[in-house]
Amino acid sequence: MNVRWDAVVDRSAAAKLKAPPAAPCVIDRDADSIRLRVQLFGALAALSARQSVELALPAGVTVAALIEMLADQFGENFPTHVIDATGAKRRHCRLFVAGYPVEDLQTPLYPATEPTEIDIILLIAPEGG
């Protein structure tokens, strides 16, 4: 591990060592569909024989609608692992769209020139879930 001792004790030095943010994707305003690559991690990866799937969905679909649609790919119980009874994202689930964390499931997904990466991680208790 390449952590300097002064980066651990001096917060200003640690801030300099942070990785740069992910490059934003280029939005394709003329596209009427979205290409997505969904990958499952953590406890979700054990729920299905497949840990990733590629989809093409209509432009403007929300993250919540995507989660419901993934039931066709990963099993009818899949949404219950990600969304609670009130329709909110479960506290022990992490969602990333193109590398950016998403908390609001009503976030719309926009078409991009490349397939948009969606990472869904279900944490178990020792990991903070």
Task: Give an overview in words.
The protein has 129 residues and is α+β, with helices and mostly antiparallel strands. The chain has one domain: Beta-grasp domain (Ubiquitin-like (UB roll)), CATH 3.10.20. It has helices spanning 5-9, 11-16, 63-69, 71-74, 78-82; strands spanning 33-42, 52-58, 93-97, 100-101, 116-122. A five-stranded mixed β-sheet has the order 2-1-5-3-4, with no helix packed on it. The model is unreliable at 3-11 and 13-23 (pLDDT under 50).
Topology:
Layout: H1 5-9, H2 11-16, E1 33-42, E2 52-58, H3 63-69, H4 71-74, H5 78-82, E3 93-97, E4 100-101, E5 116-122
Parallel strand pairs: 1-5
Antiparallel strand pairs: 1-2, 3-4, 3-5
Give the CATH superfamily.
Beta-grasp domain
User: What is the third-level CATH name, the topology?
Assistant: Ubiquitin-like (UB roll)
* Beta-strand residue percentage: 15-25%
Largest sheet: 5 strands, mixed
Count the helices. How many? Answer: 5
Can you give the helix content as a percent range?
10-25%
Q: Judging from the principal axes of the Cα atoms, what is the shape? A: globular
Structurally, the number of domains stands at 1
Regions with little confidence, pLDDT below 50 for 5+ residues: 3-11, 13-23
Structural class designation: alpha+beta
Calculate the terminal CA-CA distance, rounded to whole Å. 25 Å
Short description:
The longest helix has 7 residues, at 63-69.
Summarize this structure as a short list of keywords or feature phrases.
single chain, 129 residues, alpha+beta, Ubiquitin-like (UB roll), 5-stranded mixed sheet, 21% helix, globular
